[in-house]
Amino acid sequence: MKTLSGLIIGLLLGLILGFGAGYNHGRGAPVLSNPFAPYDAGSRLERTLEEFMDETRRAIHKATEE
Question: Which domain holds residue 13?
């Protein structure tokens, strides 16, 4: 019985920690950060667009360099 209760407690803790880590990973946050912190999709979108623009500028510069 002691082994079974230890197994159940371990599974519950693993489920809770795995949910938090998986949720953070899915939204692009650091894995060990607070999963209940407010999620600012606007800043993530802005950062992604800036990276896209930088890559586009580099590609255009590389293509017109010759």
Answer: 2-64
